[in-house]
Here is the input.
Amino acid sequence: MKRILLACSAGMSTSLLVSKMEEAAKAKGIDAEIWAVAQDKAPEEMKRADVLLIGPQMRFMKKKFAVTAEEVGIPLDVIDPVAYGRIDGQAVLDKALKLIGD
Amino acid sequence: MINESIDRIAFQMISNVGSAKSLVMEALYAAKEGNFTLAEEKLAQAKEYFVEGHKVHATLIQKEAAGDKVDFSLLFMHAEDQLISTETINELVKEMIELYKRIDN
Here is the structure.
């Protein structure tokens, strides 16, 4: 089970991305839990995630999130603005899996 | 189909103006460290992203102005919210950078 956490402002836009990623995971037969939260909830939620992906609008908070990510020992990165703009669930899922490392 | 396209427009807006917002904040962080050259670069990059986001938004405005009704979408409203907040933050950050400059001199 891969646990993928997405963070953005209000967790609203990434919610749609979550459904696209879930579709992509299902199509590939990957067992994944994918969920989106608002940026203020992210540090708490990171404790039960394998990876954190940040929306491009929250990139400036990467440093802040990186501190918690290191504490809980998970990788993090910013979602590519192009993949985000296209709601490309497949590309974002691939990135998450690559970060987890398999 | 209509919703699908408005979702895509909303995402393109959020992606572009959101990247702009991040760059604006990074410009402010750079100014805080006294790196005004980097701050200016970040602001210039932010402007490029913002203009792109604005262009996407304008296509919808033009569509509606032409009599082609645009359906309401909460996601699109959220995208407009991001656009407006980025515009506000951008104007304020430009002034705040000037303040950092004054302090540093």
Chain B touches chain A at residues 7-8, 10-12, 14-19, 21-23, 25-26, 29, 49, 74-75, 78-79, 82 (CB under 8 Å).
